[in-house]
Amino acid sequence: MAWGAPLLALPLIVPASGISGLSLLGQETGPARYLNAQGQPVDAQGNPLSVNGSLPNGDSIGEQLLADAANADALNGNAGLPSGPLGIPGSALKAYTRAADHLAASQPSCNMHWSLLASIGRIESGHARGGNVDVAGHTRAPILGPVLNGVGPVAAISDTDGGAYDGDTVWDRAVGPMQFIPSTWQGYASDGNGDGERNPNNIYDATLGAGRYLCSGGLNTADPAQRATAVFRYNHSDSYVRTVLTWAEAYAKGVHPTTDHQGPILAAPQAPSGGGAPGEVPVPQVPPSTGPTSPPSTSNPPSSGNPPSSSNPSIPSTTNPPSSSNPPSSSNPPSSSNPPSSTPPETTTPPDCVTPEPGTTPEPPAEGEPPLCEDTSSEAPTP
Question: Among 120-134, 245-259, 296-310, which stretch is predicted with the lowest mean pLDDT?
């Protein structure tokens, strides 16, 4: 198998998922049953699959897609992309360029460009969930595809890794930044960071493995049609190929490294066994900003154009705030024994006596109020 790491020649005992007992690697229940003679993933019946275990959307790449492969505008239907330079998390960008350099030395005829790997990493895992990896490149939280139990648009692939990569000892799941099925990873397992391990959950290892898969079969990715063919083998979908090639073209025009996302470290969930519907693992989200850009206002906040003076820090009522030109004095609160009348008194000096309203019967003044003026008649006025 010239295009990838050779399978182990010696028998290796692995759990026979879903079947009692053990079996030998490469025989009926081993990983090799899910690879064809060309090293491409297949189901138990030999039907082709995408690298992530999804069922194909077509038997072969479309003729129109091959014709459009050399024209970025034709590929994306003139939809356009964000104006560059585009950002890629620093650790992911390093993994893409390192893998391309490795392939340039080991498989120079492939002419792998880092931008193609970056585009696949973008669509498969969002660049490892925004570069959420540790210093060695291991994902800080599991990146798992649906349970490959044959329900929905995925194949039925029984466990081939003993749950080592995906935490499931019954069914396989696509794993890591490049979404390899564990059985496919057996053919392309790579050590991209030189630590002596080959782990699909490591962004350096997974990226180099993806590059080796794209280059397998002697494809020259510098040729537009062969590049499109290589991507179609990765995921049997014309729309997938168009998206990958379009973003690869955009990345090739220039990118800049962005800060890696340092999300929480989560344990791999135990996938449900049996024939239940596949379920995606929730994607860790970037925590929201501590201060919203437009917080909800109170029922009647003070005007932002006329903030209260720092010399008068009293908080206005939210139901009926006083005018900013005449705030209530905090040094002279109203007396609780003499609440203000519904008609507030004039601010001028109060009179010595009160003249009754014409046409009304005067009432005796209350205690503390001014007396009636002396010229007031004691008889009731004529209506």
Answer: 296-310
Residue 12 CB neighbours (<10 A): 12
Of 245, 285, 242, 241, the C-alpha closest to 263 is 285
Using CA atoms, how far apart are residues 173 and 182, in angstroms rounded to an integer? 7
- Strands 22-24 and 255-258: what pairing? unpaired
Whether the model clears a pTM of 0.70, i.e. scores above it, the answer is no
CB atoms closer than 10 angstroms to residue 350: 9
CB 17 within 8 A of CB 169: yes
Over the Cα atoms of the chain, what is R_g? 38
Burial label for 168, CB within 10 Å (0-12, 13-18, 19+), is: buried
- Chain Cα centroid distance, residue 22: 40
**CA distance between the termini of the chain:** 118
Cβ–Cβ < 8 Å for 86, 246 = no
> What span, in angstroms and rounded, lies between the C-alpha atoms of 244 and 124?
10
| Distance of alpha carbon 365 from alpha carbon 171, whole angstroms | 94
The pLDDT value given to residue 374: 52
pLDDT, mean of residues 294-306: 38
Per the model's pLDDT, the better-predicted residue between 327 and 211 turns out to be 211
User: What is the C-alpha to C-alpha distance for residues 274 and 218, in angstroms, rounded to an integer?
Assistant: 40
How far is residue 119's CA from residue 194's CA, in Å, rounded to a whole number? 24
Q: Give the whole-number percent of the chain exceeding pLDDT 70.
A: 60
Average pLDDT, the chain: 74
Q: Compute the distance between CA of residue 258 and CA of residue 289 in angstroms, rounded to an integer.
A: 18
Helix (H) or strand (E) holding 256: strand 255-258
Distance CA 88, CA 256 (A): 6
